[in-house]
Amino acid sequence: MNDWQEGLGQADRDKVVACADLVGRSGARQFQIGYLNDEPPHAWYAHAMFRGARIQAEGHDGPAQAAMALAVKILTGAKCRCGRLVALRPSGAVAFRKTRMADGTEWSAAEAAKAGQCRWRLIGDKWEPSCPVSADRKVGPL
Length: 142
Description:
25% of the residues lie in helices and 29% in strands. It is α+β, with helices and mostly antiparallel strands. The strands form 3 sheets. It has a 3-stranded antiparallel beta sheet. Strand 7 and strand 8 form a beta hairpin. Helix 1 (10-25) packs parallel to helix 2 (63-75).
């Protein structure tokens, strides 16, 4: 058993596995999860490397919380495989003025608004889009 799995229930393990899967599907070259201090309470972190840029979540109470925070950072403002803006809440998505995507292209808030939205949910150990494009299908960057 890995350090991050100790004392975790299935739901928390699923969150970490789902984050690792999302990181891989989004084109990252590296994923790491761990904690900074050896003595409890641990400060958990998760990070992913995208072509030299690191996205990270730090200072969380556990690996599941760090993984969820990283997944939210990756998905917020992202473009789904179907071409729409990823929405994590029923109330809608967040678009930034200008976003540089993992593949190096740029996506403006106006383009994101015009594209529409695709609701993503954590289902078991996988982040799934609501669009008809399967989450396992490699169609392009998130």
